Amino acid sequence: MKLAVVGATGLVGQEILKVLEERGFEFDELHLIASPKSVGQVIKFKGKDYTIKSIEEGAKLGVDIAIFSAGGGTSLEWAPKYAAAGTTVIDNSSAWRMDPTKKLIVPEINGHELTIDDRIIANPNCSTIQMVMALAPLHVKYKLKRIVVSTYQSVTGTGKDAVQQMMDERKGINGPKVYPHPIDMNALPHIDSFLDNGYTKEEMKMVNETRKILGDSTIGVTATTVRIPSIGGHSEAVNVEFYEDFNLSEVRSILSTTPGVIVQDDPKNNIYPMPINSHNRDEVFVGRIRRDESAPNTLNMWIVADNLRKGAATNAVQIAEFMTENSLVY
Ligand code: 2RA
């Protein structure tokens, strides 16, 4: 089993390495690949030195699985080349997510769709993954009609330079800027670029990816995505209308027994999910579960997860595990 991590020096790439180590993912060879500026650098993994290789070199190594986290442009160009060479590509960018010939996978929800013929598998957007993890089991029971979501997203979702901008601002340093406005002590209702319909790409990812993962194009979804000066995870206020009525204790019990979901919902004791607690955790945390008293069959929830973990690295590694455990890799 030859494994490659493409984009190994980025925030998600680094997190993928941590997750591979923590989960004891087994391989015979590991190849770390990154952009030309990092080629030749040495990265330690499990006490062993790995020299960063170029993406061109990586394509010739006959790797079985490549986890890509190198951006959409790189993925559009290189994922098909790796796939043509027999590699199963698990891609963390948005390049393939809405391609009807590619699967968009959250293993706990639709891993069963994967087959040996899937050569490029899309990893969904972070803000979508954590939301569908909590909504999928409720959809099975009560059937989703409409979702209204507002996000509070960590700067880690933008990358290392964004974390640096926030830290620089905090120290009064006038450093390079990633965002069009200050991020520290601010909130930017602007994640990814704006589209002609007035929404951002991030907002439309939440709409389209949710429907694709849940396999139901009739679900109404509307999103407002906001960047806030936090690290450790994305938070989401989610208002969900169902076709069927629910009972709150049953909702709690469904969520409490959903693998990968942890209910933290004891407001009297100030217990609710927060990014400070989701940091470095693989689970999705749900709290503030309450009935929307202004509308029938409607629920409010607060969903928090480490966007670099379940929102990116962990989900990608889980897909790799699913493919190997089910002998779906050539
Ligand atoms: C963000 N969703 O947080 C993105 C990262 N994929 O900006």
Automatic annotation (TrEMBL):
SMART domains in the cross-refs: Semialdhyde_dh (SM00859)
Keywords: Amino-acid biosynthesis, Diaminopimelate biosynthesis, Lysine biosynthesis, Methionine biosynthesis, NADP, Oxidoreductase, Threonine biosynthesis
Spans traversing the lipid bilayer: none
Binding, NADP(+): 9-12, 37-38, 176, 307
Cytoplasm as UniProt keyword: no
Molecular function as annotated in GO: aspartate-semialdehyde dehydrogenase activity; NAD binding; NADP binding; protein dimerization activity
Residues binding substrate: 153, 227
Annotated active site: 126, 234
Binding site for phosphate: 97
EC identifiers of the protein: 1.2.1.11
Residue ranges occupied by any Semialdehyde dehydrogenase NAD-binding domain in the UniProt entry: 2-117
Gene Ontology BP annotations: 'de novo' L-methionine biosynthetic process; diaminopimelate biosynthetic process; isoleucine biosynthetic process; lysine biosynthetic process via diaminopimelate; threonine biosynthetic process
Catalytic activities: L-aspartate 4-semialdehyde + phosphate + NADP(+) = 4-phospho-L-aspartate + NADPH + H(+)
Function: Catalyzes the NADPH-dependent formation of L-aspartate-semialdehyde (L-ASA) by the reductive dephosphorylation of L-aspartyl-4-phosphate.
Record note on quaternary structure: Homodimer.
The family this protein is said to belong to: Belongs to the aspartate-semialdehyde dehydrogenase family.
Name of the protein in its database record: Aspartate-semialdehyde dehydrogenase
